[in-house]
Amino acid sequence: MSPKERVPSTYQRNALAPSLVAAAILFLAPALFQANWAPLVLFIASIFGLIVGWFALQARHWWWIPVFLAIAVLWNPVMPFPFSGVVWTTAQPVAAVVFLAAGATIKVIRK
């Protein structure tokens, strides 16, 4: 018996790792907001939104770009919006799911 040769993947998913990090932070956001770590959540969501948006641009997945620009603006830590309540608490896991969906679908052909 000969060992099987490993066949390299045809695609690479550059947006997967930043999406997983952002999704983890956003799923933990309600607890982090109560512990006064809101600036950390805002920084991570905004910066990783721009990073994933850039990977979407490189992969020519244009439909993701406005979504991540909106996330970068809504979660921006420089001039934060005074969001609170149920809508803002619900927006955190919704954005996390958006990050996960984008991380799974944004891919480029490996060269």
From TrEMBL:
Keyword Transmembrane helix: yes
Keywords linked to the UniProt accession: Membrane, Transmembrane, Transmembrane helix
Transmembrane segments: 15-33, 39-57, 62-79, 85-106
InterPro entries for the chain: DUF6804
Residues making up the signal peptide according to the UniProt record: none
Membrane recorded as keyword: yes
Name of the protein this chain belongs to: Apolipoprotein N-acyltransferase
Taxonomic placement: Bacteria, Bacillati, Actinomycetota, Actinomycetes, Micrococcales
